């Protein structure tokens, strides 16, 4: 059983008679917030997309009528407490909110926050109103634990510490385990552990931190399945001057090579797959903590010293640029490690007299003292957009004041997993207020994410949020006293406040909307300086920008955290099950803001719905394209667009930003180096990157690489086929009738549970001439439509329309029923039409024709796994033997040999060292293009890229949230939220 430590604290100033007056802003006097809302009953039923098995079912749950199906589903499955089917199970949002709100209100009363009982009641009503109207949300542990018999753990983020002793290392394993069990994540820096190049007191050689990472990774991999809330989330940091830094950098890249090899051998290496546990280090994000000294050495091209952990002496010198290149190469291969900029982090540290900041939480937004925690809350920015499409800064500030008060109260009753964490949190009271829906807000305001106007708006909002937070913190310090560690760090804390104020003064506004917000922020920071001088501060930290994964869905946000919109077309879950693709509802509002008329808006939205982007949309001005840029797709933001937005917000945050810089598959190692270098120069505290398709288990894609090649090949094939059609129509407009007696085949099929039959007839030369489809009951509308469709296609075939044309047009059509089939050659289909024409292609087109369309049989796909080619063995001749001969002749000569395989080029370094230092190791130039995981299988079938991994709980598509992924169907996360 975990040890818990209470967060109760005394309030000397409160005892002196000072109390807090709560202003009623959102709720209505004399009316309970619930009575202003229309409530309805819903059934929450979830099934696994892959297996069809029931995942969750609770009927008759109660939610406001304006909450989406997604939001109510995720809250019901994730946050309702009690066993399903028992009287103890929560059945209404009212019960959930009351459980949390009444606990906060009770603690506020007991710890002397409220001036009168009336103020306590106003606090309760305001907090209830803001939550049920989706204006903000606490982090997930609050919803899991507060008001239940479980320990009142409210923090999502923990930072641990480990020293160079077995007792400390084993205690690290134990502490992490309890934190994972409670549904939270932790990070720590391993740099105190001596390297494998140093000696033990016994004279032996130390194991080094990387070896101990194996044990912690195995522990996290085991415990992640024990909780009902989420997978384990952890961060491992190593200083750049640690002698084992190169081994640490290459750790996950080596494992990614192993994953590819096992995948190609037929093992299930998908996210949550049965065999993924056979590889190591997959449960942590890795980051290198770099210093200004190291980054300057990279710029200057000089050497950099690696220091012994016990003595601090330089035991090895390395070329700084070479090490930096190895870091970027590993990130190119597998997205790890990220970078944390040590000097920048500690320059903004409010408590340097207590200790340095050495690590972060798993997503890198919380950075503070070792053995500390942070409870988070995020505001929904779109709720503060007024009817005239300007941001309501005054209302936003009032919400921030109130939420900071509630967050501070939570520390009074919270429990913590270890005594050290509890003591540090009570002494420093770190908070992490943030926001979500920035991308949607900017779009609705007609501002491009990667534009001066967009960055200025984000900077002023962030500045107002943090300035207002510290203002309220200073006011609370005057009522219930400053944090216990303030006196020791007073001058440093006030210095950081002045740095924030100076950064605010340096902001140059672009338009009226951000100028209005900036004016409020300037006033807030002036109050911070004045009140802080008198009262001190209640909280050592106030703000971070978290990924807001699950709680983002709870608030019905279009975008998470500081992220831009991921795509313009989204999946919307429907009442009663199923989903549909819809155009992001922020787009019509943005078009109206930009001055487009209703009929123009309708045409543009229809175009986006069909194409997924705005390029060449009818009537849309090219100068407005940037407003609709997204993280992925045809108008994807440039990598530096992400970095510049982070740089705009960073000076106004106590912590950092959870965000991944997305790069296309074609990005180079040099581009990653530039992102890391510019992030340092622009003052970021941390940066993580993700290159499309760099990981097997979590394939991201922007339609680049093979997907683009396949699309281009298919388009070329279609164009060529269309040319043939024109020739036949012009020169031979005659019908080639089938003989009276002809060869035909009948195929029974099942697609997504729907059964049907297809009969196809051929000419004497084997060319397809007719099809008949049987689907639905005789006499039904569906059966009639299928008959008419069959006749139309048959006549087209007989008049010379090539089958290739039909295949290219009708494959990849998406509509229900869709899913698994009973055909070994076509395992999954996006629709009945998609299946039918893939089956016809396999039955009647030649291998070359099908290859141009990307359609292969099961046998051909297996052959590709074994030989690297889809073609029959006899057609490839001795290509494999020739390659072996080339390799043999190159042995000992140090030659560089490239394989001639069309689908996957493998570069082999003979007797030279690659980036990992291994000799003669084969490095795939590209990830394997055959489908080996469920996500890759969907890519293969649909012909389009799958933009995120599939959920390990329900099998539906996930989406990025900071540096993690969250499921739109059930709310499960890949590590943090």
TrEMBL record:
It is an enzyme of class 1 (oxidoreductase). Residues 43-134 form the Ribonucleotide reductase class II vitamin B12-dependent N-terminal domain. Its EC number is 1.17.4.1. Its cofactor is adenosylcob(III)alamin. Pfam families: Ribonuc_red_2_N, Ribonuc_red_lgC, TSCPD. It catalyses: a 2'-deoxyribonucleoside 5'-diphosphate + [thioredoxin]-disulfide + H2O = a ribonucleoside 5'-diphosphate + [thioredoxin]-dithiol. The keyword Nucleotide-binding applies. One of its GO terms (molecular function) is ribonucleoside-diphosphate reductase activity, thioredoxin disulfide as acceptor. Catalyzes the reduction of ribonucleotides to deoxyribonucleotides. May function to provide a pool of deoxyribonucleotide precursors for DNA repair during oxygen limitation and/or for immediate growth after restoration of oxygen. PANTHER family: RIBONUCLEOSIDE-DIPHOSPHATE REDUCTASE, VITAMIN B12-DEPENDENT RIBONUCLEOTIDE REDUCTASE. Belongs to the ribonucleoside diphosphate reductase class-2 family. This is Vitamin B12-dependent ribonucleotide reductase. It comes from Nocardioides oceani.
């Amino acid at each position: 059983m975990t040890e818990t430590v209470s967060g109760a604290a005394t309030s000397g100033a409160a005892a002196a008679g000072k109390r807090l007056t709560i202003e009623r802003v959102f709720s209505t006097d004399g009316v309970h917030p619930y009575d202003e809302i229309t409530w309805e009953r819903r059934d929450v039923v979830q099934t696994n997309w892959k297996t069809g098995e029931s995942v969750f079912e609770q009927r008759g749950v109660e939610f406001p009528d304006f909450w989406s199906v997604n939001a109510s589903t995720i809250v019901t499955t994730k946050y309702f407490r009690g066993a399903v089917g028992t009287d103890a199970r929560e059945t209404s949002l009212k019960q959930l909110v009351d459980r949390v709100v009444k606990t906060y209100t009770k603690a506020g009363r007991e710890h002397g926050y409220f001036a009168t009982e009336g103020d306590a009641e106003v606090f309760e009503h305001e907090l209830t109103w803001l939550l049920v109207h989706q204006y903000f949300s606490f982090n997930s542990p609050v919803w899991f634990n507060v008001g239940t018999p479980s320990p009142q753990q409210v923090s999502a983020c923990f930072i641990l510490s480990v020293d160079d002793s077995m007792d400390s290392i084993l205690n690290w394993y134990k502490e992490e385990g309890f934190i994972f069990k409670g549904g939270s994540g932790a990070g720590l820096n391993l740099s105190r552990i001596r390297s494998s190049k140093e000696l033990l007191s016994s004279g032996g050689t130390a194991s080094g931190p990387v070896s101990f990472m194996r044990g912690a990774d195995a522990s996290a991999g085991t415990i992640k399945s024990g909780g009902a809330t989420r997978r384990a989330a952890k961060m491992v940091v190593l200083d750049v001057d640690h002698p084992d830094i190169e081994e640490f950098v290459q750790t996950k890249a080596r494992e990614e090579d192993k994953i590819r090899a096992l995948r190609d051998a037929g093992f299930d290496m998908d996210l949550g797959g049965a065999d993924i546990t056979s590889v190591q280090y997959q449960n942590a994000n890795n980051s290198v903590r770099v210093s200004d000294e190291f980054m300057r050495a990279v710029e200057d091209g000089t050497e950099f010293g690696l220091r012994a952990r016990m003595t601090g002496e330089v035991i090895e010198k390395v070329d700084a640029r070479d090490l930096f290149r190895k870091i970027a190469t590993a990130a190119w291969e597998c997205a790890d490690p990220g970078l944390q900029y040590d000097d920048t982090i500690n320059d903004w540290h409010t408590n340097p007299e207590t200790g340095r900041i050495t690590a972060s939480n798993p997503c890198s937004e919380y950075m503070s003292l070792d053995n500390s925690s942070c409870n988070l809350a995020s505001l929904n920015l779109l709720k503060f957009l007024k009817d005239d499409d300007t941001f309501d800064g005054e209302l936003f500030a009032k919400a921030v004041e109130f939420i900071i008060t509630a967050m501070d109260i939570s520390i009074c009753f919270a429990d913590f997993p270890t005594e050290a964490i509890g003591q540090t949190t009570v002494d420093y009271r770190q908070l992490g207020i943030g926001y979500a829906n920035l991308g949607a807000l900017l779009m609705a305001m007609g501002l491009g994410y990667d534009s001066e106007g967009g960055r200025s708006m984000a900077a002023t909002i962030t500045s107002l949020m943090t300035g207002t937070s510290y203002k309220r913190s200073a006011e609370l310090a005057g009522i219930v006293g400053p944090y216990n560690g303030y006196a020791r760090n007073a001058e440093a804390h006030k210095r950081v406040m002045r740095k924030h104020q100076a950064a605010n003064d340096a902001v140059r506004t672009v338009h009226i909307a951000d100028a209005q917000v900036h004016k409020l922020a300037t006033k807030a920071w002036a109050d911070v300086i004045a009140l802080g001088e008198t009262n001190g501060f209640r909280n050592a930290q106030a703000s971070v920008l978290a990924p807001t994964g699950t709680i983002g869905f709870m608030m019905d946000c279009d975008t998470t955290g500081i992220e831009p919109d991921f795509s313009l077309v989204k999946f919307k879950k429907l009442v009663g099950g199923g989903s549909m693709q819809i155009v992001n509802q922020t787009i019509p509002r943005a078009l109206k803001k930009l001055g487009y008329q209703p009929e123009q808006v309708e045409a543009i939205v229809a175009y986006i719905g069909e194409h997924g982007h705005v390029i060449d949309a009818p009537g849309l001005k090219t100068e407005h394209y940037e407003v609709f840029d997204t993280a992925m797709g045809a108008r994807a933001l440039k990598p530096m667009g992400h970095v510049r937005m982070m740089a705009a917000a960073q000076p106004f945050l106590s912590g950092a930003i959870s965000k991944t810089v997305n790069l296309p598959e074609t990005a180079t190692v040099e581009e990653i180096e530039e992102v890391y270098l510019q992030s340092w120069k622009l003052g970021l505290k941390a940066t993580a990157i993700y290159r499309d398709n760099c990981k097997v288990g979590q394939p991201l894609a922007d339609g680049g690489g093979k997907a683009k090649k396949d699309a281009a090949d298919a388009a070329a094939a279609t164009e060529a086929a269309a040319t043939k059609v024109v020739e036949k129509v012009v020169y031979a407009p005659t019908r080639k009738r089938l003989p009276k007696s002809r060869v035909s085949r009948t195929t029974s099929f099942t697609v997504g549970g729907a059964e049907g039959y297809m009969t196809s007839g051929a000419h004497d030369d084997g060319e397809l001439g007719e099809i008949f489809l049987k689907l639905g009951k005789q006499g039904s509308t569906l059966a009639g439509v299928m008959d008419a469709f069959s006749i139309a296609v048959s006549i087209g075939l007989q008049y010379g329309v090539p089958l290739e044309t039909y295949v290219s047009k009708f494959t990849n059509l998406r509509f229900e029923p869709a899913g698994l089939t009973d055909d070994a050659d076509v395992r999954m289909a996006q629709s009945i039409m998609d299946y039918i024409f893939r089956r016809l292609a396999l039955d009647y087109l030649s291998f070359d024709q099908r290859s141009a369309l990307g359609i292969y049989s099961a046998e051909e796909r297996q052959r590709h796994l074994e030989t690297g080619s889809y073609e029959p063995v006899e057609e490839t001749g001795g290509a494999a033997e020739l390659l072996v001969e080339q390799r043999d002749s190159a042995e000992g000569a140090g030659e560089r040999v490239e394989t001639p395989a069309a689908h996957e080029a493998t570069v082999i370094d003979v007797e030279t060292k690659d980036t990992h230092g291994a000799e003669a190791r084969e490095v795939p130039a590209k990830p394997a293009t055959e489908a080996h995981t469920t996500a890759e299988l969907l890519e293969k079938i649909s012909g389009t890229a799958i933009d995120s991994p599939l959920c390990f709980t329900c099998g539906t598509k996930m989406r990025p949230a900071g540096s993690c992924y969250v499921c739109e169907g059930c709310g499960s996360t890949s590590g943090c939220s």
